[in-house]
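Weekly structure sync - notes
Attendees: PM, LS, DV (DV joined late)
Agenda: review two folding runs queued last week.

Item 1: First target. Sequence and structure tokens pasted below for the record.
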Amino acid sequence: MLTAIVLIDTAPDVIPEVAETVAGLAGVSEVYSVTGRADLVAIVRVRDHDKLADVIADGISKVPGVVRTETLLAFRAYSQVDLEQAFEIGLED
């Protein structure tokens, strides 16, 4: 399984629409609205490099409102912590 982190710059007035469209693409597991140099971060998980091209170059990059992308390929995962558990830290029922 290959994991890519895709930093996405969008036109400022369409961030939510772009996020929803990208989140619906096959191979995209998560999309986050973030602060910093990118508007959105997408996590892409696919079986091979050809699928990366399908999802990123032929998918995310062609979504209306996407201005630029930068792709970071993950080499190794150091933590298998469940994200839901991480976000629940400190929250009371």
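Item 2: Second target, run right after the first with the same settings.
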Amino acid sequence: MVIISVISVNTIAPIIVGMERGFSKENYFETLKIIPFLWVIVVLLVRLVAGPLAGRMMPRFAGQTDGFNARILLDTLLNVTILSIFLTIIGTWVGSKKISLEPFQNFFHSWFRNFGAAFWIELVIAQPIARFAMKRIHARQTSQEEIVN
């Protein structure tokens, strides 16, 4: 989860801010200031909201014969949908440093854009890197176990 959340927050937030305010060095550096707060919020949302909700929804959509890749894709879709809904609102509040009705007034316009950016970054960048890292960690652990035995 750490690998995915760090990659996601450090790529999705700057892209969304860039699409909202324009891509500039100043906007990027402004985004870097809020990333630590967003990372904590993302981790809490994943553990307390998105993970449990997606876990309850998975059996309704995934069949017993569905393969690993289909389950990963569905899990990513469910988690990104849930997180993007919450973060479209909360992210706006954190970024603007005030709680307002603005994220609700522009919700559908912002959410579709945010969901699209987040889904493709998760699918093409974050998830593959995290799976590769986990394979390497497990391979290293297995080889160390073989040396010990």
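Discussion on item 2: Residues 69 and 75 are 10 Å apart (CA to CA).
Action: LS to circulate a short write-up before next sync.
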